[in-house]
Amino acid sequence: MSTIGLVTNPTSGSGRGARWGVEAKSALAAGGHRIVDLSHGSWIASYEAAMAHRDDLDALVVVGGDGMAHLGLQVCARHRLPLGIVPAGSGDDVATVAGLVRHDIPAAVARIEDGLRGRTLAMDVGAVTGGGVEDPATPRYFGAILSAGLDAAAAAYARGITVPRGPLKYIYAALREIARFRPYGATLTVDGRRWSQTCTLVAVANAHVFGGGLRLSPESAVTDGALELVTAEAMPRREVLALLGRLQRGTHVDDPRVRIVPVREVRLEPHPDGAPLPVAFADGELVGAAPLSVSVVPGAVTVLGGQ
User: Where a domain ends, among 80, 97, 124?
Assistant: First the structure.
């Protein structure tokens, strides 16, 4: 019998998270596991409970969207504890890049059972450090993409709205931010090479999608031991709007003003020749203000049932 810690988010999936949490708990218990419910009234409280119990668990299972997956990464990265994800959010980018089944509780729990029997994915994560990293953890780990340009400004707004859902939520938020956009000033240090530029987008990708499926870095993978720095040069607002449309199809990579560079470590700092950088987000969660350093941690998390 395995001892499984369970964290659910009753507000995920536009309120369906509570029902999904109950279903997932029942399905796991039916498999003969001992369930320790670590869900509390806030993300931080649930994180602290999971951290307090992680040495006593055989697995941690989170039920919800990218916020819950992000919590699980903080608890399980660089630790023996494997992570199970029951994807029940509007975006589920982390679950998508790990090859998991979305919005199907029995199938998701079956994948977790497969993982407990040995079917797992050793998933890379990005690790973020810096004085601006928000509590509760530093390094802050992420599974998909860290955003620090227009994409981050849109993520900040999208985080506070419930409709529309999925990719449409990010597009709606981005349209709002484009209306007030001024190019950002950034100094980037990439594997020891340093330069400054004004930019529209600046992101560090561990995976190929963000924002509920937008293909920011199409060639990125969570098993290649590398990150990708994605930048887009300063553009007029009308061209930013066109760029947003190409993000849906992944065709922005054909624009010569967009650069995608494989990296192992990036330092991101604000530069006065441009608007202040937005606060960075990753996996839809607030990470913190630049200056920030981002590095890859290969195979840092064992994802149950991943592929």
Answer: 124
